[in-house]
Amino acid sequence: MPPSHRAGPGPRLSRQESLFPLGDLYPETAGDPSPETAGEPTPGPARTRPDRAPAPAAPSPEAARLLDVREIHAEPAAAASPRGRQILARFPHARLIEVDSHWRVPHLHGNEGNVERWVRVKTETLVLGVRKTLTTRPNGRSADWIAPGASNGCAMACAYCYVPRRKGYANPITVFTNIDAIIAHLGRHVAGQGVKPEPNQCDPSAWVYDVGENGDCSVDALICDNTADLIRAFRSWPTAKASFATKFVNRDLLGLDPRGRTRVRFSVMPPRDSRMLDIRCSPVAERIAAAGDFLEAGYEVHFNLSPVVLRPGWEADWGELLRHLDDVLPPAVKAQAAAEVILLTHNRELHEVNLGWHPRAEDLLWRPDLQQAKRSQNGDTNVRYRTGVKGPAVQRLRELIAAHAPWLTLRYAF
Ligand code: SF4
């Protein structure tokens, strides 16, 4: 169970003495004292910190909708780091709770009972940790390489999302604060690859690194500068390119000057499916409408046509979506756009969890008549559309793209 206490206004900490002095955490500029703390002595010695984070700007309406952070579970080293301090300063009213490991927050991980609080946990809780394992894995589909992510988890709540299956269902954002180490690792990996020897479907000339495998970098950018730091790093690596899929339009990213070295993949699906499945995400039409602005700001803009959910009427709705792309996207976006198509995979455990909070989604996602078991690369047992169903559906989608959006290069479909 989550702690029974709720955060009141003003910084309140738990077990903070073992972390570091309170005065180091909350800049005086973080806001007026709350009614609750006004008149009380400031805990801990007042001191000047060279790495003091600036006063937090007022959150955008999008940020306020997604994140109302009330409690931050932090490993001590993560909270004490410059990035950790930036985050704590951005959410000055959140209660800080020390944890030994970001993987072991008892009421957050491995507890499907949190299903009743599914969205509230995502809105009100952050976890800060130090990423111990820095490994870049080969991929070959969405990207050449999967980078060690700077976060894990998401404030959005797509009903088909695979991240909570791995993480234990209650799945708020964990931010890894050692972004410098992550970027240093990536710099070494990029240097080690040299120039890409030949084109492939990921990119004709750059090694593509997926930097957002287990979350959404656009949402992470509401919390701290990890996404901005990654984008800046990649713009200085001429042989590499960052890439991340997103379902959230964060216009703050438009000012980061990626100089063509970051690929944003806007995930889209028919709005009829999205309204049922993409919980808390930006509307599909908004994602598509943002594509031109992101291209103009220096991003490469691709699309993820995913997940494709087979249901009565799916072909007509995907045809309509592709016609919408054709109608509204500027010619410059079409000239460089490519897409990946991924048919839905699902999972029995996630199905059971979803029945507890969003059973109507399962009418779309759980189709034993069309699905078969599949052992995934990481050993999980998932379900996917049956052989004999999936192949023809992929072929049909290829035909729809050829008919309605012939300018859209299909990077791969499976
Ligand atoms: S946006 Fe991505 S990471 Fe976030 S819940 Fe949806 S599928 Fe999962």
UniProtKB/TrEMBL annotation:
Organism: Streptomyces similanensis
Region described as Disordered: spans on this chain: 1-61
GO MF annotations, alphabetized: lyase activity
PANTHER family: SPORE PHOTOPRODUCT LYASE, SPORE PHOTOPRODUCT LYASE-RELATED
Key words of the record: Lyase
Keyword Chloroplast: no
Pfam families: SPL
Annotated InterPro entries: SPL, Uncharacterised_Spl-rel
Domain of life: Bacteria
Record flagged with keyword Ribonucleoprotein: no
Protein name as catalogued: Spore photoproduct lyase family protein
Entry-linked NCBIfam families: lyase_spl_fam (TIGR03886)
